[in-house]
Design a protein that fits this description.
CATH class of the largest domain: Alpha Beta
CATH superfamily of the largest domain: 2-enoyl-CoA Hydratase, Chain A, domain 1
Number of strands: 10
CATH architecture of the largest domain: Alpha-Beta Complex
Strand order of the largest sheet: 1-2-3-5-7-10
Structural class: alpha/beta
Shape: globular
Bound molecules: coenzyme A
Distance between the termini: 40 Å
Number of helices: 11
Length: 258
């Protein structure tokens, strides 16, 4: 694998580390493909009881989808990217073994969406969360418009999505976006402690808990479908070209509403 590091520890926990530190662990398509393949490989492996996903380094969990990779996309390519992301993040959400996001820095855009697709989120005190896509002329494309509402409620989700505000770990905890906040050196021990507790319970019952809780939200897929459609439409706008170009040129974007 090019962008992921993995190891299984003595507690039967698979550790997956996103490893693109020079790009703040931005999620490119190769990386997401590797993550999907890895999850499929371990789904039926009894020697693994749960998974922790984190990012290399102290600065970022993942700073979003790889902007350079999709900056030139048209509407169709944007829809395809979003649909593929949905498929992979749905695999995480419905995974039969518990998956914890150990958030060790920036979890922005697709990084925040990845954390939200996991079953539990533990944040280090230096973690930062946000959906800054509107700065780029787009919307979240990996389920963020839906899962953020599920976790923090409509009013706060709308504010975070429209302002692109980046919040710290304490506020994320207050909002219910994360389950726990711990000092950075306690991040992995805390995640391991939770998974050890879960792994002492009946695995089939755990799998069914995940299915039942997800079933609560299963009746309404139209929001996810709307996200794919509107993400694609954003890719055909002048503001998207301007927003992504401005990021890559390290300047502020000037939007015109077209
Ligand atoms: N996609 C692609 N590259 C990214 C990236 C992303 N989402 N986030 C960071 N990078 C790259 C930067 O382009 C830079 O690359 P370079 O050194 O080749 O120029 C490198 O990672 C370091 O980032 P930099 O912006 O220099 O770090 P910073 O500490 O000044 O700022 C952030 C950190 C997170 C505030 C800033 O990187 C950022 O805003 N990232 C984009 C967040 C975002 O919009 N995510 C949603 C994407 S859909």
């Amino acid at each position: 694998m090019q962008h992921l590091l993995t190891h299984t520890d003595e507690n039967r926990i698979l550790h997956i580390t996103i490893n693109r530190p020079d790009k703040l662990n931005a999620l490119n398509m190769t990386l997401l493909g590797e993550l999907h393949a890895l999850l499929e490989d371990y789904e039926q492996v009894d020697e693994v009881c749960g998974i922790i996903i984190t990012g290399t380094g102290a600065k970022a969990f993942a700073a979003g989808a790889d902007i350079a990779e999709f900056a030139h996309f048209n509407a169709n390519e944007g829809c395809d990217l979003s649909a593929r992301g949905h498929h992979i993040f749905n695999t995480i959400e419905h995974y039969p073994k518990p998956i914890i996001a150990a958030v060790n820095g920036f979890a922005l855009g697709g990084g925040c969406e990845l954390a939200m697709a996991c079953h539990i989120r533990v944040a280090a005190t230096n973690a930062k969360f946000g959906q800054p896509e509107v700065n780029l002329g787009i919307i979240p494309g990996y389920g963020g418009t839906q899962r953020l509402v599920q976790l923090v409620g409509k009013g706060k989700a709308l504010e975070l999505l429209m302002t692109a505000d980046i919040i710290g770990a304490t506020e994320a905890l207050q909002l219910g976006l994360v389950n726990h906040v711990v000092e950075p050196e306690q991040l992995m021990p805390k995640c391991v402690e939770i998974l050890k507790k879960i792994s002492s319970k009946a695995p089939l019952a755990i799998e069914k808990i995940i299915q039942c809780v997800n079933a609560h939200f299963a009746g309404n897929h139209s929001g996810f479908d709307a996200e794919v459609k509107h993400f694609g439409e954003c890719c055909d706008t002048q503001d998207f070209k301007e927003g992504t170009t401005a990021f890559l040129e390290k300047r502020a974007a000037k939007f015109v509403g077209q």
